[in-house]
Amino acid sequence: MSKSFFKSGIAASEITSQSFYLRRREFIKTGIAAGIGISLGGLAPQLALAKDSADGFKTDEKLTPKDSVLTYNNFYEFGTGKSDPSSYSGDFKPRPWTIEVGGMVAKPATFDIDDLMKAMSIEERIYRMRCVEAWSMVIPWQGFQLSELLKRVEPLGSAKYVAFETALRPKEMPGVGGAFPVIDWPYREGLRLDEAMNPLTLLATGLYGENLANQNGAPIRLVVPWKYGFKGIKSIVKITLTDKEPLTAWKMQNASEYGFYANVNPAVDHPRWSQKSETRIGSGSFFSPDRRDTLPFNGYGEHVAQLYSGMDLTKNY
Ligand code: MTE
């Protein structure tokens, strides 16, 4: 990992605030583990089974090692190889940074990232992330609910969708040039407004207690834990409320393979591979990978399945 990742204009105060949450979490976890050991003895193995908090905000599954989260990435603006984003994103500048929020809203606004981070209460979420390529991770994010930002701009009654755009800076992004671009840049994503307002939907500004590294989508990216990872658009510069389903990068690239909804669904295979199971990154070994069943909505069904009642999820994949 090149040294420049954490140098990029990050204020010490922000690092402190994000790491504060992480330290507190570890302290609480250690305390709970110790308590279980003393008081419940024989029940401990059952309690060790992976569980989510009642609101789904935190899973207690084993975290994916930080090194894997920082070096096994998809961020095609920096190349298509898994190590390209960490190798080639050193020139990307996440400061100064503004996010323009507009479209069908009463109060459009452009937010400076540091002002926004001060205005929002940054909290920790520990989510499973399931990539459409059939691998998964467990990541401790820091960030705030997208709903908190949207409330500030006051969506109009006519707004039905939210569209997102990644920065496009060919000089800092070696993957966006070339005669045959993989993606019709800028990278774009979208959510239905009710999905965007769901409490699980996060705008992440950090992970593992530190500001986001460039390769993970500095300075701010989307995290939607019940959807395939490609919905988690990185390095966001623009958010637009609209009444039409937004164009999304992967659907534009190949609509038969990647849909707008992209809810994790073991019952709907990708045309070229099964989605029934996944490999947990950073766990298991080359000879004995940690392969596990994929859960509907990535295990978040009790919090989000109602958003899709009456919809045919084999058609709306
Ligand atoms: N956002 C942009 N702008 N460009 C990308 O190529 N890749 C997506 C998503 N967000 C991507 C992106 C995919 S396919 C995945 S799985 C996740 O980012 C990976 O996030 P991570 O590298 O932080 O694990």
Task: Report the end-to-end length measured between terminal Cα atoms.
Answer: 36 Å
CATH classification class: Alpha Beta
Looking at the overall shape, the CATH architecture is Alpha-Beta Complex
Q: H/E series, N to C? A: HHHHEEHEEHEEHEEEEHEEH
Number of helices: 9
Could you tell me the number of beta strands?
A: 12
Oligomer: single chain
CATH-defined topology: Sulfite Oxidase, Chain A, domain 2
Low-confidence stretches: 1-16, 30-47
Helix content: 10-25%
What small molecules does this complex bind?
A: ligand MTE
**What form results from the Cα inertia axes?**
globular
Q: What do the pLDDT scores average to? A: 89
> Which radius of gyration do the C-alpha atoms yield?
19 Å
Count of discrete domains: 1
Largest β-sheet summary: 7 strands, mixed
* Superfamily (CATH H level) name: Oxidoreductase, molybdopterin-binding domain
Strand content: 15-25%
Structure class: alpha+beta
